[in-house]
Amino acid sequence: MNEGDKAQVAQRLAVQQAVSRVLLESNSLDEAISEVLRLVATHLGWSLAAFWAADETGGAARLQCRAVWADDTVVRAPVVEATRTTILRAGEDLPGQAMAAREPVWIEALSDEGATPRIRAARAAGLVSAAVFPLRERDVVSGVIELFARDGRAADDGTLTLMTAIGHQVALVRRRFEAQATALEGLERTRDELETVLHARPEAVAVRDAAGRVVYANHPPPETGGLLADLQRAATPDLAARYQMWDEAGRPVGERDLPGARAARGEAEDRQLRVRRVGAPDAADAWIAVKATPVAGVSGGTRRVVTVLRDVTVERRQQDWTRVLAEAGSALLAVPELTPALQDVATLACRSIAGRCAVALRQPAGDPRLAAFASAGAGPAAPDDSARGDALAAAAAAMQAQQATLVQEGGWSRIAVPLASRATVFGALVLQAGQDGRRFGPGDLAGAEELARRIALAVENIRLRSEGQEAARAREDLLAIVSHDLRNPLGVVMASSALLLKSPLTDPPGKEGRSKRQVEAIQRAGTRMNRLIRDLLDFAAIQAGRLTISSHPRGAGELIREVFDALVPQAEAKSLKLIDGSPESTLRVSCDHDRVIQLFDNVVGNAVKFSGEGGSVTVTAEPDGDMVRFSVIDEGPGISPEELPHVFDRYYQAKRRNRDGIGIGLSIARGIVEAHGGRIWVESPAAATGVGTSFFFTLPAAQQ
């Protein structure tokens, strides 16, 4: 992965983290979604963003815009007001299509043909592409995020994955805000209505008097396993006896800091605690959000405490795993070598989700070995050999079973996940909890499987990068052989043939001149071999970014005539006319003379090579802004539409009879042009009618 791809991955992670923070900190969905639209649009370069909320009132699904963000280029355009006021049915316009299909809709280039008035307004505002992402809650679409850009954008997996994740987050937050809104509406009704709402809440709500007695408590949902109800109603001494608790920093919670204790002393509480029931060593830990508020009693004499408890175990697990996966992805991309990258991942895992983490890889002999090992609060070398041995045994078992496992035993739990690529298991990831009170659950197993997939992908990428580097080294070795070991004997052949041509050659009677012709054939073959070697070396320099140029002012007409002088023998052999279309031109270009002659030789030489008998090849030069545009036009058979996109590809040769090269001449021509800061292209509008081919390229004009 190149630096650009890494930057895009980092940018998407930053956007997702910023969106998560906004969704968690906002007081309303409208406030949150407006900021989400701004974050996504500004970070990813979209000019217009809209959020459409689904409404099924009356039985017909409709979409209505709830929020719009626009940058300065389109903020006053009619498309913004049209978006704010439009109501869509399922299947109507782009948002309606995404809602009906329950899948993203991505339009790389908007078209007026068959477009709605709103899309035509978008086109009129200069918007070119659009992407629409449904917000799904299971199989129900609760809303749609729509994005417009001023440039053409093809769909990409990174953006699709990011917007799917953001859509899922927005859907969850929307559901949470809707539940909270329902509760707030209930508070404005009678006490009976209030109790009805509180009984339907997922939180446990309790009101205690100054003595700590429960004067009101709702009924938490049964899916919490009775934990919230027990925490809600138990007296402080009972809580201390029944549960162990830790704060977010991992510090044990004493009796003076149990839920509600601070509020009883007049201090508001808003924190999260990790809770474990005493006497249940196999149970996974739970995370409870505690909000406790002291309330003055009647006449200010008696204080009461309102405590709201919410099970946030799933949210915390997701947050921990999201953070670990994001940081692990960055670590795997940042470190090019396998072992340090795996060690970084193991260390990251031990910061928040595991007591120990190990990564084992299969050796050539078949047995696994530990490639990385880390322990919470310790360096890689701190754990004893028995811990490493246990991790290695668990890795071997997972590799043999070829499936992920979650084991709960006594005071610890362990997850082992095989690492596989191309249906081949090559290692395993092992996570163990228990040293600091952590316990794993099914959510952790899913997170570990995702981490294992990312590790496997990174290992495959590193392997491919290593193979690529090895291939590059092999290419460099081959080029060294070509440039030194092959050129040296070729130089001897060329020098010897030249000497032979200067020496008197004796032929048998009746075969006069044969020796000279044979020596000339040797010299022509040597010249061609020398040219091929030069092309190979130039092509390698272009591919490696090492092609250097030295620019000096040159007359465009002088360059054309110099190339014509060199190609006259080839042209006369085919009765071709070489036409200088700008003989009086005073245009001058800033270029490397030798490289540009090589460029002309490749392009004009191709035109001569592929032209038929008696035709013509015309070369012209004309100003083009701060560049000079050259054109090379022949009357040959042309190039088919299927071949045109590949003309400048390396090792590509057109489907013609004359194929005496190796297919890199035009690739070298492109490299020379681009090294000068220009561009090169080809046109052949009707190859089937034999109208010929036109090559164009630009070079920088010389400063006057």
Task: Describe the protein in words.
With 704 residues, the chain is of the alpha+beta class. The protein is built from 18 helices and 24 strands. A six-stranded antiparallel β-sheet has the order 3-2-1-6-5-4, sandwiched between helices. It is elongated, with a radius of gyration of 37 Å.
Helix content: 40-55%
Proportion of beta-strand residues: 15-25%
Largest sheet: 6 strands, antiparallel
- Provide the residue-averaged pLDDT: 81
Radius of gyration over C-alpha positions, nearest whole angstrom: 37 Å
The helix count comes to 18
Query: Which structural class do the helices and strands define?
Result: alpha+beta
Q: What is the global morphology?
A: elongated
Task: Say how many strands there are.
Answer: 24
Poorly predicted regions? 379-383, 655-659
Give the termini separation. 43 Å
Biggest sheet: strands side by side, in what order? 3-2-1-6-5-4
List the keywords.
704 residues, six-stranded antiparallel sheet, 45% helix, 23% strand
Question: Layout of SSEs?
Answer:
Elements: H1 3-25, H2 29-44, E1 48-55, E2 62-70, H3 78-85, E3 87-89, H4 93-101, E4 105-107, H5 117-124, E5 129-137, E6 140-149, H6 157-187, H7 191-200, E7 204-208, E8 214-217, H8 227-233, H9 236-242, E9 243-246, H10 261-264, E10 269-277, E11 286-296, E12 303-311, H11 313-334, H12 338-352, E13 356-362, E14 368-375, H13 385-401, E15 405-409, E16 412-421, E17 424-433, H14 442-502, H15 514-543, E18 552-555, H16 556-573, E19 577-580, E20 588-591, H17 593-610, E21 616-624, E22 627-634, H18 665-675, E23 680-683, E24 694-700
Parallel strand pairs: 19-21
Antiparallel strand pairs: 1-2, 1-6, 2-3, 4-5, 5-6, 7-8, 7-12, 9-10, 10-11, 11-12, 13-14, 13-17, 15-16, 16-17, 18-20, 21-22, 22-24, 23-24
Helix pairs in contact: 1-2, 1-6, 1-11, 3-5, 6-7, 11-12, 11-14, 14-15, 15-18, 16-17, 17-18
